[in-house]
């Protein structure tokens, strides 16, 4: 059977990596190196740093660049590194993109400008200016639930004409719109919602950017491995098996950053507390996450 899957410019199984902090709230670069090395060893061929899960709103530009450089040192060329540079300010986003290039990133993740709610022509102009500013390929980040603004499918199709706009992290919850763009462009789509990993891959996505992979990278990779091997029943079984864990981590009233950090800390892995305004998960939540993790990894 001939595959129609588009090339995966940033790898296939990407983790939306948390940003480890010390208990005092400082950037934990040694912990970041350790965590990144574990994720790559257990199945991730790409890492997304400084994204939503990486607490990008509460880290400085200097910290973002330091994190990229430290993780690059840890993983070398064994994984691609995409780093979040999106802000509500086009000029600042350009500055961060240029800094990411100097720090050693392979690509940039650019979220739709938030709060000001720009119309679609302004959304497109923002992305084009960022794409023109550096030599790095761009992954658009469509997450209207956080930004308040969609990248509409027609805008996405227009942006796909730019040679450096090559991918999309899709958190739109618009499966029809996603399929429209997949059918009409060469953009590489990455499922940004863990419950969509298999569904989006089945219609031609390049892979995923998974928050849950912080804890279970091998399981997320195995879903895509099974599908690639033609064992769609096994792929579905693996996706359904991780569903209760996804629900607990991503849909239980707390951001994935908070739940991922709580579980990783419980497992003795680098994490630390989230930065305010986020607060740590309580013990009951962490106990539930650990129980689901142990059930999943024991199966």
Automatic annotation (TrEMBL):
Pfam families assigned to the protein according to its UniProt record, in alphabetical order: DHDPS
* Residues given in the record as pyruvate binding sites: 53, 209
Looking at its record, which EC class is this enzyme? lyase
Entry EC no(s): 4.3.3.7
What is the annotated localization of this protein? Answer: Cytoplasm
Keyword annotations = Amino-acid biosynthesis, Cytoplasm, Diaminopimelate biosynthesis, Lyase, Lysine biosynthesis, Schiff base
Fetch the Gene3D superfamilies from UniProt: Aldolase class I
According to UniProt, where does the site described as Part of a proton relay during catalysis lie? 52, 115
InterPro entries in the cross-refs: Aldolase_TIM, DapA, DapA-like, Schiff_base-form_aldolases_AS, Schiff_base-form_aldolases_CS
Pathway linked to the protein: Amino-acid biosynthesis; L-lysine biosynthesis via DAP pathway; (S)-tetrahydrodipicolinate from L-aspartate: step 3/4
Question: Which reactions does this protein catalyse?
Answer: L-aspartate 4-semialdehyde + pyruvate = (2S,4S)-4-hydroxy-2,3,4,5-tetrahydrodipicolinate + H2O + H(+)
Give a yes or no for keyword Cytoplasm in this entry: yes
Q: Catalytic site residues? A: 141, 169
Q: What terms describe the molecular function in GO for this protein?
A: 4-hydroxy-tetrahydrodipicolinate synthase activity
Q: Does the keyword Magnesium apply?
A: no
UniProt xrefs under NCBIfam families: dapA (TIGR00674)
Q: Any idea what job this protein has?
A: Catalyzes the condensation of (S)-aspartate-beta-semialdehyde [(S)-ASA] and pyruvate to 4-hydroxy-tetrahydrodipicolinate (HTPA).
Q: How does it assemble?
A: Homotetramer; dimer of dimers.
The similarity comment for this entry is: Belongs to the DapA family.
What is the name attached to this protein's record? 4-hydroxy-tetrahydrodipicolinate synthase
Classification from the root reads: Bacteria, Bacillati, Actinomycetota, Actinomycetes, Kitasatosporales
**Which gene is this protein's source?**
dapA
